[in-house]
């Protein structure tokens, strides 16, 4: 989860998010170098004593400041497109879960084998137990098996919502009447938090998402218990 | 938890307020190599030409190119290591799954026993 006054990304919990982190570092280094170049040029221009009021053109610098940005853009675009197409791959998911957005909670349906469905409401601040996170915890978590490809079908029952989990590198709009698909693999077990990412009314900030990745046998036990309670 | 936050605050060092050289892989080495390249290029140019301003320009160009080169080389190396790491992880996982079966890659084929004359 995010910690207070955090500026950077959360630690990656999926291979796609790892790739996004690496791409971000790559783009940031390029931005840093361009910034130092501009800073240096500004200092040089402010401190120079050389002036020429009659310069009309210069082929060399025109070529440099045309080619250099083109090269830089290609260096940024190639890894970016690679990740874009990587994110679109859906490689034989082991499990499909439907995440439906409502005002103001999420509901999850696991219908591959049995009919398992439940709602996921935020735990109010006054009901939190020590150690739980304010505005992030839910009464029922979306439990998934770790290191298994998961497909999530996202939609909404009323207004626009968005299902987002930053540490998994996943964000998908929940549009009423439309089924959007996303997929991910969790690299490690853990609990991953997200929040609704599309304005949806008064309690838009109070419908969080909690994904819990557990080993397969724990997932099987959990689904058995959930079916019994249903 | 607060100790870890204090550690991360102490170690964080952002150049121009954006590039955290402590936490970003390869950033620290790239900047240090760039600084070294910059000083070397600038000093060499000055010794050869005695032109101060132009030597500063050459020094900056040296910083730019050395940082970029070191950065890309280090990132390429890290990317190859990451791919190897994933292959090794897959291999270890498959070894556990296939151990003892026909598909076990470490299983040596048993030599055929000669048939005894009846």
Automatic annotation (TrEMBL), chain A:
UniProt-listed InterPro entries: CcO_II, CcO_II-like_C, CcO_II_C, Copper_CuA, Cupredoxin, Cyt_c_oxidase_su2, Cyt_c_oxidase_su2_TM_dom, Cyt_c_oxidase_su2_TM_sf
An individual GO BP term: ATP synthesis coupled electron transport
Co-factor(s): Cu cation
Topological category with respect to the lipid bilayer: Multi-pass membrane protein
Family: Belongs to the cytochrome c oxidase subunit 2 family.
Gene name tied to this protein: COII
Pfam annotation, one family: COX2_TM
Record domain Cytochrome oxidase subunit II transmembrane region profile: where: 1-91
Domain Cytochrome oxidase subunit II copper A binding: 92-225
Keywords for this protein: Copper, Electron transport, Magnesium, Membrane, Metal-binding, Mitochondrion, Mitochondrion inner membrane, Respiratory chain, Translocase, Transmembrane, Transmembrane helix, Transport
Protein name per the record: Cytochrome c oxidase subunit 2
Broad class of the protein's primary localization: mitochondrion
Function as written in the Swiss-Prot or TrEMBL entry: Component of the cytochrome c oxidase, the last enzyme in the mitochondrial electron transport chain which drives oxidative phosphorylation. The respiratory chain contains 3 multisubunit complexes succinate dehydrogenase (complex II, CII), ubiquinol-cytochrome c oxidoreductase (cytochrome b-c1 complex, complex III, CIII) and cytochrome c oxidase (complex IV, CIV), that cooperate to transfer electrons derived from NADH and succinate to molecular oxygen, creating an electrochemical gradient over the inner membrane that drives transmembrane transport and the ATP synthase.
Catalytic reaction list: 4 Fe(II)-[cytochrome c] + O2 + 8 H(+)(in) = 4 Fe(III)-[cytochrome c] + 2 H2O + 4 H(+)(out)
Record-annotated membrane-spanning stretches: 27-51, 63-85
A molecular function (GO) term: copper ion binding
Compartments reported by the entry: Mitochondrion inner membrane
Annotated source species: Oryzias dancena (Indian ricefish)
Cofactor: binding comment: Binds a copper A center.
Single GO cellular component term: mitochondrial inner membrane
TrEMBL record, chain B:
GO BP terms: mitochondrial respiratory chain complex IV assembly
UniProt subcellular location: Mitochondrion inner membrane
Signal peptide range in chain numbering: none
Chief localisation class: mitochondrion
Keyword set, alphabetical order: Membrane, Mitochondrion, Mitochondrion inner membrane, Transmembrane, Transmembrane helix
Pfam hit, one: Cox20
An example Gene Ontology CC term for this record: mitochondrial inner membrane
Transmembrane segments: 56-74
Listed InterPro entries: Cox20
Family: Belongs to the COX20 family.
Protein name: Cytochrome c oxidase assembly protein COX20, mitochondrial
